[in-house]
Amino acid sequence: MTGLVVGLGCDASDDSVDVERIDGRNVGAFGNDHGYVAVTLEDAAEPMLPGTVEIGVRLYYGGCFEDFYRREHQWRADGERGGSVFDSAMRDDLCGDDEDGVGCSVADLHQNLRGDAKLVADYEVDGPLDGRTLRVGPLPTRTLAGCDPEVPVYAGQLEVWGRAADGTVLWTASVEGIPAHQDDAPVVVVDGS
Q1: Which of 38, 135, 182, 186 has fewest C-beta within 10 Å?
Q2: Looking at the DSSP assignment, which residues form a beta bridge with residue 107?
Q3: What pTM does this model have?
């Protein structure tokens, strides 16, 4: 098979992005100190996306975000403050009715903070995928996470794959060093499997 193009962008996690501000703090795209990474799916030469009914995503926290979740237990998915961030309303926001977005519902959304800390999201998808954007999150804003404003903020690695109705993996993509605070992220070509 040929390649799958994955374009990455992020919404509302630094001062270069136009976001709503309350009392001078960055409230993020979701209005709760959290934003998301936008993953745009595009077929390359040979179509691989048709037939995809499930998309799995693993977003490995890098540097500042991993430190934040290891330090600030109340913001974890099972924490006092983080629980509401990872609730069913967030799932609806990830699969908003945006015309450029992937038609989806979130089947699973949780964190695994043992070993390589990561966000785990599984989506049931419907409709066209080529050229559509999938929101992956939540990610804390750099303000909430206490990231150094002089240092670019990255999530460690993103793994994405699509499955057919029978469970067969149709395509995979993996990207290192996701710019998790930039709205003009690079487009990356990844070989499919």
Answers
A1: 186
A2: none
A3: 0.82
